[in-house]
Amino acid sequence: TEIYTLSLHDALPISGIPLKVDRPGVGRNLGDHVVVVVGPIFVNDSSIIPRLRDGDEKEVERYHERGEGLLGEIARGPQAFLVSTRAVAGGENDWPDIQIFLALNLVNGLSPAPEGQDEALHLCVSNGRSRQRGSIRLNGTAWRAGERDDQRLALVDLQLLTDPNDVDVMVEGIKIGLKVFENTTAFERVGARFPDSPHTSCMNHVYRSDDYWRCYIQRRALNSNHMVGTNRMGRVDDPYAVVDSQLRVIGVGGLLVIDASVMPVVPNANINAPTLMLAEKGAEAILRVHTTRG
Known about the structure:
Blueprint: E1 5-6, H1 8-15, E2 34-43, H2 57-66, E3 76-82, H3 85-89, E4 98-103, E5 119-127, E6 135-139, H4 140-144, H5 150-153, E7 154-157, H6 164-182, H7 185-189, H8 210-220, E8 222-223, H9 272-293
Antiparallel strand pairs: 1-6, 2-5, 2-8, 3-4, 4-5, 6-7
């Protein structure tokens, strides 16, 4: 069934909300990181993966009292930021666009592997500077039918992997990551091995060829919930900019947007730190205005 969709701009008159300022960029330019998980990669040395063992009550106490210890750690191992051949070709030798990291406990959580089963790692590859751009729109069909729940009305279209170059960057990241697992002394010591079991949806491609990995990515990739861009920052003469460099909504007095939606593009790493930076910047701007008035 075809769904009738509305931009957020067009939705206002229909919903009875008066349009104060026309900023057509609202809801556009949606960006996110794309990540694909490759594995399991088995190892025969369980000591490299932190686990909770029976009788580890002290770990619970450490976390409860000080927020430290195993329960206070992110379940991710070493990370690396790499520059793809696409970035090099574009003269961006010093701007990484591939992030690879190890997931330590996707299979068994914090519990040890069952008796007789090897521990498993997973290789995670993220395109740090994906070119896809999506949008957030309104489900006009549902609105006309009387729906008013915003979670049911929102249509989030990330446009994942619509740029073929993004897929090729991730293929390169997978091949580099597996090379580390299979051709380094550190992982040889723990017997790291990637099983020869192709994804069932990609059996028509030569296993581990570039076309195989493209197929695998198309079927296994996920977004990272690092969504940005729908209220992007820009010059006041840019019709698609929503806020200026001080986070002020262009054309509206006294209104700021202080969240990740103001980032014009997704950063090439996790967005927690830059979002905190924006919060600090916004708080300082608000304090400055009120201090000046007071």
